[in-house]
Amino acid sequence: MGGGPDQERAGRGPVDPERMIAEARKAFFVMFGFLVIVWLVQLANSADHYALSRDYGVVPGDLGTLPDVISAPFLHWSWAHIESNSGPLFVFGFLAAYRGVVRFLGLSLLVAVTSGLMVWFFERGGVDTVGASGLIFGYFGYVVVRGIFDRHLIDTLIGIVMAASFAYLLTVAVPGTPGVSWLGHLGGLIGGLLGAWLFRDRRPRSLPTAHSGGDTGATARRTPRTGAGNPRADLHKELDDLGLL
């Protein structure tokens, strides 16, 4: 059964409330599963006196640890370390993932790399760095600015609320904070901001249609996202105009 322009935008299917709910459900289980993995790794790590953190952390300038920018976010140095990271990781991770899990996985890889490389290139003293805080800062930066790049009202409002509520996080992404890798935090934040632009929604907000008549000027109107016979067509159009879809 074929579909017209209202069925597909830029090669992608329509985004409707049902799809948003489905993506949010997937985001919840993805983050829950991610936390389960992190805690299982912590159990094995602590049982082995944190040998995993020593063997698979990022050491500045050490070529052998360069691939460990991927493994380091799964590792921690203590139970207090993982406990302090788990709550923010789940909250910001869910908010970053609920618009699309595939996009979120790409974002996570980007943030892990930018955070780890910042430590690898600029950290001093041979410190072995591990922890999910780089991801947390990346998700935070992504959530704060995503709505601006996507021109999406709900995400913009979420970003404003998160920025106002958690602005204090930025105090540990600047030099001078003892006991934390501020470079890893800063690298994660940069990765999140970059990811918001790289993974922005490139679908057009409206579709031009030919205007019959003798007007010489070109005109365009928004094509309904659902068929005219659908009772929800008007509702979907109004929500789309507000940037809620």
UniProtKB/TrEMBL annotation:
EC assignment: 3.4.21.-
Keyword Membrane attached: yes
Gene Ontology molecular functions: peptidase activity
Top EC class, one word: hydrolase
Membrane topology annotation: Multi-pass membrane protein
GO BP field: proteolysis
Low complexity biased stretches: 217-229
Span list, region Disordered: 207-234
Keyword entries, A-Z: Hydrolase, Membrane, Protease, Transmembrane, Transmembrane helix
InterPro entries membership: Peptidase_S54_rhomboid_dom (IPR022764), Rhomboid-like_sf (IPR035952), Rhomboid_protease_S54 (IPR050925)
Domain of life: Bacteria
Membrane-spanning parts: 27-44, 104-123, 129-149, 156-174, 180-199
Peptidase S54 rhomboid domain ranges (all copies): 69-200
Subcellular location: Membrane
Protein name per UniProt: Rhomboid family intramembrane serine protease
